[in-house]
Amino acid sequence: MRALSSLRWKIALTTTTVCCLVAAALGILVHNVVARQVVGEVRKEAARDLDHALGHYEYGTAHGDVNAALDPPGLPAPLRALVARGRTGSMVGTHGGEPVMWAAGPADRSALAVWIPYGNTRERLRDIDTAILASAALAAGVVALAGLFLADRISRRLATTAAVARRISAGDLDARVGFPADTGPDTGAEADPGPDPDGRRPRRYRDEVRDVAHALDSMAASLQERLEAEKRFTADVAHELRTPLTGSLAAAALLPEGRPKEMINDRLGALHRLTEDLLEISRLDSGVERADLSRVELGRAVERAVAATRLPAEVRVVRDAVVLTDRRRLDRILVNLLVNAHKHGRPPVEVTVEGPVVVIRDHGPGYPAELIEHGPKRFRTGDPGRGRGHGLGLTIVAGQAAVLEIAPVFANAPDGGALTTLRLPVGRLPEAG
Question: Does pTM surpass 0.90?
Fold first, then answer.
């Protein structure tokens, strides 16, 4: 959400910055054009007065109502130098402490200069600049508000899409963004008006946020269909294998005792266990499994579950606790973890109970990084070199733990070995009597 909020402000700031830059460029352009026009009018007026004064000087008459003088002391030096080269010109300067527009031309060996007040023109230019700045500030403010408004709508729709993506990642494949196919003025997109009478389709506006949402919905639907197909396939295969396997096991029991019978029974037993695991996974995937919760003394339950496996493991109860769990499902989780530790790890295998937390550890190579990061995947053992197992044991652990609403943590111990942590919900002690 913070990233989307940042995106909203980035869009608003970018829009405002671009608006300010455009307003500044247009302001400078307008200022230059208006200033050139206003100052040009004053220069023309000064030039007319200078022509008038030169005419009177040539005929030796008075200058009339024109402010004119020969070599006045306030004449700017650049203009005086220009006149000395026999040319006429004009520039802004001061006379008697007031801003004026000077115009001067050669008169014999002197400079005949006229001046007209320039204060009003300067004030006019300042008023124009103030109006330009005020208009630019107003435009920037309006664009900033509009940009923030539009960015907020975009970010809210992206936030909805991101929330749905997180729900899908968490396993809720029914989650959908659900933006309408054709949106109205809320997003700036227009509905498809259909083909023109001549058969050509008019150009329609694209709504990229809506496209992303629809792509996410399509991906979720496709993923859901694939997973449902996989679940159905797993359940169908397991059910179809169960009947011939039962017959094969019965037929194998009739074989004479010997090594061939042992080998057949061993392979048929492995196939039978695989079939039962597939059926269990299909039931867990269906989402219909419900836990039969009861209060259980965790230390004693773990000791009995470990003893039932007949696998060597050291059980250490640091502090016992009464937890609220399904005893059968908890036994299934512990048995699978112990079997996995002996198959893919090395002894000693240690089981520690400390309050509502159970930790199972071996001293083997540890879990692969992919399993720690993404969790167990079916038919992936993480131990391809040994070629043992089908990767279903930890998948069943994760499925049964989900039914119990606990999250197993798969990690590696600092000094080596796989480390699995189960944190169970605490239940109240049963009342005496």
Answer: no
